[in-house]
Amino acid sequence: MQHGDTKQNKDTVWNFGSRLAMDNISPTFNNYKEEVLGNRYATISKRSWNDTLKKCQAIYKNEIKCVVKQQFYHYLRDHNICLKELVAMKLYCDYDDLQREFRKMYRAPYNTDTERLRSFYHWHSTLSQTFHKLNEIAQRLPIANRATLHRVLYHGVSSVMNIAEFDGKCCGPLSTTPDLMVARSFAGREGMILVLEPRYERTNKLLDLTALSDFPDEQEIFTFDQFYSIKNVILSSVFDEFYKDYAQKYGSNMQVSKPIDDDIIDALIQPTALIVTLKMLYEALTSNNPIIHDKTLIDGLIVFILSCSKSDKLKFEETQTFVDSNIQYICNEHCSCATITFDDNLFTQYVKQKALVVPHIKTLVCEYFMSMKIRTSFA
């Protein structure tokens, strides 16, 4: 089972993916068994298939004495999950290479690869059908009566990427975990950990696969088309140096029966404030009025730019590089004519309130964005 994304290249951005256009796709294989045994991207052996099928049959027939697995069996039967759907889920959570290649079909540029879509047609259809059944039940229940809700989950990404969006629907399957250390193990030394807040205002689409997985210690929480907010991005290098701080903030990961307010989720660790700044910058530049006129955003950008101009720099140099890269990515993607515009009156007012010299701060801001070939204006 894999709680993370594989390194592609340094130019890749992490995004929530897109809904697949399968209407005009014809399958290469007759069923998903043939797909996982014969596709050209990643396969499993016949022996692995038979082993997976045998384990699922034991669960489905309630032949296992383990109490947790028996409870899982009753959950499946209550939701009318058939053996075919159970096997489809277990294949996803137990075979990392297979899972990885399957998940690519929801992300650009792989989502336009017709051969890939044809190769995983039946597996995609079965997983979609499975979660449709689960959500049909969830939609009929008041949120307080649904399964225990997680206030925060983690997803490891094995390379540091720019973030394309901070809120949205994560199309297709996503493996997460409530254990920060598990996510770190999947992120690797050169990766990053996404701190995700599931959004429960629609349906509860989280499925605990601990009883199904061959790796129960990983506490896999499986979702499909789930809405998330990215609350923080923790670089592996920073986590390794300050793991006690992160463990103290996130380690307990208490489960609650209702959603938690943002201010409880938000960490007090410095990088989190920078992620909030990135999120606000993205929201400002993608709004109908892309002029920066929010004091909190102006404060976040100025504080960050001032820290970059000091000789001691940020305590987290890797985080500074990450934020730099994301600011450039957001501006290049969403700035009109490669120009970022500030509300001049609000900017000047804020700078004076902080007892700073307005021309000096404007010069620093202009130089910072110009280093990214982005012009700055004050209107």
What can you tell me about this protein's structure?
The structure is a single chain. Helix content is 47%, strand content 16%. α13 crosses α16. It has 16 helices and 13 strands. The strands form four sheets. Strands 1, 4, 6, 7, 8 and 9 form a six-stranded mixed sheet that branches. The longest helix is centred in the middle third of the chain and has 19 residues. It has 379 residues and is an alpha/beta fold.
What labels would you give this structure?
379 residues, alpha/beta, six-stranded mixed beta sheet, three-stranded parallel beta sheet, 16 helices, elongated
What's the short version?
This protein has 379 residues and is of the alpha/beta class. The chain has helices spanning 32-38, 46-60, 67-78, 83-94, 96-103, 114-119, 121-139, 180-187, 236-241, 243-250, 262-265, 270-285, 295-309, 317-334, 344-353, 358-370, and strands spanning 4-5, 13-14, 149-150, 153-157, 162-163, 167-176, 192-198, 207-208, 221-235, 255-256, 291-292, 339-342, 375-378.
Uncertain runs are: 6-11, 141-147, 252-269
Distance between the termini: 51 Å
Integer-rounded radius of gyration: 23 Å
Number of helices: 16
Provide the helix percentage.
40-55%
Give the H and E element order: EEHHHHHHHEEEEHEEEHHEHHEHHEHHE
Characterize the main sheet. Answer: 6 strands, mixed
Q: Overall mean pLDDT score?
A: 83
Derived structural class: alpha/beta
Strand content: 15-25%
Q: How many beta strands in the DSSP annotation?
A: 13
Secondary structure elements and pairings:
Elements: E1 4-5, E2 13-14, H1 32-38, H2 46-60, H3 67-78, H4 83-94, H5 96-103, H6 114-119, H7 121-139, E3 149-150, E4 153-157, E5 162-163, E6 167-176, H8 180-187, E7 192-198, E8 207-208, E9 221-235, H9 236-241, H10 243-250, E10 255-256, H11 262-265, H12 270-285, E11 291-292, H13 295-309, H14 317-334, E12 339-342, H15 344-353, H16 358-370, E13 375-378
Parallel strand pairs: 1-4, 2-5, 11-12, 12-13
Antiparallel strand pairs: 3-10, 4-7, 6-9, 7-9, 8-9
Helix pairs in contact: 1-7, 2-4, 4-7, 12-13, 12-14, 13-16
